[in-house]
Target: ABC transporter ATP-binding protein
Amino acid sequence: MIEFKNISKKYGRDSGLDDVSFALDKGKIYGLIGPNGSGKSTTLKMIAGLVRPTKGTVLVRGKAVDRRIAKDVAYLSELDMFYQPFTVKDMIDFYASQFEDFRIDRVNELLAFMKLDPDKKLKQLSKGNRGRLKLVLALARETSVLLLDEPFSGLDPMVRDSIVKGLLSYIDFENQTVVIATHEIDEIEPLLDEVLAIKDGKVIDRQNVEELRETKGLSIIQWMKMTFKE
Model:
C-alpha cells in the first residue's frame, strides 16, 4: 500500500530523513515511534503529499505521491489549523465539500461518540475537544490510507482509552492502512500490528507487535526503551 524507496529529505543543512526504505501493507495498523525531531511528521507529510523528498520515491498504491494523493489519504495533522469563526458543523460542511469520500452519516455517529456539539464555535472549544474534532474529520473519510499524527495530544488521559477503543469501530481493517505517530504508547499498543522506531531520520528497528510479546516477552514500551537507549 505504501512504499518508501531510498527517501532523503533536507531542510537546508538539516536532515529530516536519511535514505529511508520500507513498505507498509494493506489492512494493518502501524505505530511510528521516536523522539521529537526524529522524522515522524516528515514521514507522514510525505505520504500525504504535503512534503516532497529531496531524493527517492514515495509510492501509495503503486503510484508516485503528489498533491493529488489527498483523494486516497486522510491526514490528521499534529497542528491545529481550523477556521476560528466556524462552528463544528461549518467545518464538517467544508470537509464534505472538499472530499468525495466524506461520509455525513458517519460524522453524526462520530460527533455523538466524541460528545461534540455541532453548533459550538471552534474558538470556544477546549484543546481536547479540538483534538476530538480533528479525529472526527479524519475518521469520517473512506480512504485507503489513514495517517494520524499525535492524534491524542491534548486529550484528557481519562478519556483516551475510550476513544482509542472507539477507533476500532471506524477503521476498515481489511482495506485501510493506518499509520499512527504518537507518544501515547500505552493506549494504542492493543491496536498496533507493527511498530517502526525512527531516530535522527533513520528507521532503526521494526517489529511485529505480537511476535515482540510472544517471542521476546516485551511490551512496546519495554522494546522502545531498549531500542532508543542503544
In short: Strands lie at 2-11, 14-24, 29-33, 55-60, 63-64, 73-76, 145-149, 177-181, 194-199, 202-208. The mean pLDDT is 90. The chain is about 35% helix and 25% strand.
